[in-house]
Design goal:
By secondary structure, the protein is an alpha/beta fold. The chain is built from 21 helices and 25 strands. 31% of the residues lie in helices and 16% in strands. The chain has a 6-stranded mixed sheet. Helix 9 links the parallel strand 9 and strand 10.
């Protein structure tokens, strides 16, 4: 039977391989090694001969694990089936978190999702059982949170089919978001190719206090570096301030490193990570990690002279860091909350907040919800409720059951919260929103990770801002974008309420997490008995056929399909939301190609010129289909 869990034996063996590889690589480098160096280079496929020039050399690496979400997981499993392998070569799990749409509330939304997506869930469940993959069903939680709770361990290399896989850097991992093709390469036993990244060092000093949270570290950094500042880089945090941040706080920071374009983000192993491992039933792994600490932290020479080692170094003093808010439309439009009111007036943004949202894979830890509930409790004690709609997305069933036991869900519901399913929901555009019309300008604020136009609700006119969970609750209670809880009061029925900063929250529950394995199915012990069928009339799934290899002549004089303007992210190339349902059907999802991309020159969204007919204002996907029918390959420039 396939091994899925990160057992003590599995982890100890991983450290043995890491140590062996570093013994080969270290003399070749001839210099002290940072943590990013150790995590990446200890996983080389060929440490003796691999070229090692940062920013230029392409590495072949051997990740320890693959995690799949239920959207790209469909594609990955369909491709894996074509390899004719009987099981995956590395531990792999698939998590049903992307397809659940936020509508009314957790119970109803989950029930409707199971009904609407049953064909996909059945396919993933049977494919996982047959090919040795762990299956986490709908409602079990978001893959990044479940990975942190169940599988992550310091020093590991993991790839996942979601851009926020770097969340696991909170436990000292090299965790990278990839496409489905990369994931399948590793699943079949091939090495994974990546450009050897440069390293950007972030020195943290001091400690957080008051309204300032781990979220503010990464929001501040987004403003400093911009969404391109981390491209082809690992962001390595170091300095005395790292030990003041919990493991889940570190995970929040690493999660949003994706918004900088970073390959991944990492923290050195410390007691805070050990505390989390122990609280999640993996205390033995903490002991093994401690015995291998030399693998899990930078060499002392690196921290003593960071400028000589890192390609770039920035410093953040946690003691003076202010609470931040970023947005709208980009996570690098950052400022302290104290400066937001003036900017909002200058820009003419609507002052009213229509919806406040907390949770998601970025900020749904026990510590996060504790601090949010602290602010909510202050309002509840005065009989106040939210002036904005409040939606709460727990990251996992374990988090949900624990905050229900400890009374935090009740406090949030007392001020008007609706608790959604343990899934991605509005964070990725899975939000059936009915309180505004599409095209209506409005303001939302969330503790999520991305805020590009249309990202959350498919309405490009929604002005989406991002902050810490506690700040989101405070601003939602006031109902205003220009509210600063450090200086302003909430007016209600002739009363004025001043909110005080939430008290320091426990990083793990004092009574322990309420363990939950609900929704998990292990691989079958009799995989040969499992048949996987896909109906020919299905509009959700289609079996893949091999592509016809192009000839060299096909690459000559290729017509321009589209030249994009500005930022062109995955949200522009293939917007999520309602299109997620077709990810397992290659032909149907192709209609979504570049639907959100902005055309250079005209500013049109999802439109282009047909190079065959000369007609303007044509849907990109339709033009691409016409070129395919004519036997022409095409090129896109961004």
């Amino acid at each position: 039977m396939a091994v899925i869990d990160s057992t003590p034996e599995f982890v100890a063996n991983a450290y043995t391989i890491m140590r062996h590889n570093l013994e080969i690589v270290r003399p070749r480098l001839g210099r002290p090694m940072g943590l990013a160096d150790k995590l990446v280079l200890s996983h080389l496929d060929d440490p003796e001969n691999q070229e090692l020039e940062a920013g230029k050399s392409y590495l072949l690496a051997r990740p320890d694990r693959v995690i799949l979400q239920d959207v790209l997981g469909q594609t990955a499993m369909l491709v894996f089936m074509q390899t004719r392998r009987s099981s995956t070569a590395v531990p792999t799990s698939v998590h049903c978190d992307h397809l659940i749409q936020a509508r009314v509330g957790a119970s109803s939304d989950l029930s409707e999702s199971v009904s609407e997506n049953g064909e996909v869930y059945d396919f993933l469940r049977s494919a996982a059982a047959k090919f040795g993959v762990g299956f986490w069903g709908p409602g079990a939680g978001i893959l990044h949170q479940v990975n942190l709770e169940q599988y992550a361990f310091p020093g590991a290399m993991i790839i996942g089919t979601d851009s926020h896989t770097p969340n696991a850097g909170g436990l000292g991992m090299c965790a990278v978001g990839v496409g489905g093709a990369d994931a399948v390469d590793v699943m079949v036993g091939m090495p994974w190719e990546l450009l050897l990244p440069e390293t950007l060092g972030v020195r943290l000093t001091g400690a957080l206090s008051g309204w300032t949270a781990p979220k503010d570290v990464i929001l501040k950094l987004c403003g400093m570096l911009t969404v391109k500042g981390g491209t082809n880089k690992v962001i390595e945090y170091f300095g005395p301030g790292t030990e003041s941040i919990s493991a889940t706080g570190k995970a929040t920071i690493c999660n949003m490193g994706a918004e900088l374009g970073a390959t991944c983000s990492v923290f050195p192993y410390d007691r805070r990570m050990a505390t989390y491992l122990e609280a999640t039933g993996r205390g033995e792994l903490a002991g093994i990690a401690a015995a291998n600490i030399s693998l899990l932290a930078a060499d002392t020479e690196v921290e003593a002279d960071p400028a000589a080692h890192y390609d770039k170094v920035v410093e953040i003093d946690l003691a003076t860091l202010e609470p931040h808010v970023v947005g709208p439309h980009s996570p690098d439009r950052a400022r302290p909350v104290s400066a937001l009111a003036a900017e909002a007036r200058k820009e003419g943004w609507p002052p009213a907040i229509s919806t406040a949202l907390i949770g998601s894979c970025t900020n749904s830890s026990y510590e996060d919800i504790c601090r949010a509930a602290d602010v909510a409790g202050q309002a509840a004690a005065e009989g106040l409720t939210m002036k904005s709609q409040l939606l709460v997305t727990p990251g996992s069933d374990m988090i949900l059951e624990t905050i229900e036991r400890d009374g935090m869900s009740a406090v949030l519901e007392e001020i008007g919260a609706t608790v959604l399913a343990n899934a991605c929901g509005p964070c990725i555009g899975q939000w059936r929103r009915d309180d505004i019309e599409k095209g209506q300008t409005n303001v939302i604020i969330s503790s999520f990770n991305r805020n590009f136009p249309g990202r959350n609700d498919a309405n490009p006119e929604t002005l989406s801002f991002i902050a810490s969970p506690e700040l989101v609750i405070a601003m939602g209670l006031a109902g205003r974008l220009d509210f600063d809880p450090e200086t302003d009061v909430i007016e209600s029925e002739g009363r004025a309420l001043s909110l005080h900063a939430p008290a320091p929250a426990p990083e793990v529950p004092p009574e322990g997490f309420r363990a939950s394995s609900g929704g998990y199915a292990a691989p079958s012990q009799d995989p040969g008995s499992i048949e996987i069928t896909v109906g020919p009339a299905s509009e959700r799934l289609s079996l893949l056929e091999p592509f016809v290899p192009p000839s060299p002549e096909d690459y000559q004089r290729m017509p321009l399909l589209l030249k994009t303007a500005g930022k062109t992210t995955t949200d522009h190339i293939s917007p999520a939301g309602p299109w997620l349902r077709y990810r397992g059907h290659l032909d149907r999802i192709s209609d979504n190609m570049f639907a959100g991309a902005i055309r250079e020159g005209s500013g049109e969204r999802g439109r282009t010129r047909d190079p065959l007919t000369g007609r303007e204002d044509q849907a990109v996907a339709e033009v691409a289909r016409g070129l395919k029918a004519a036997g022409r390959l095409w090129v896109v420039v961004g």
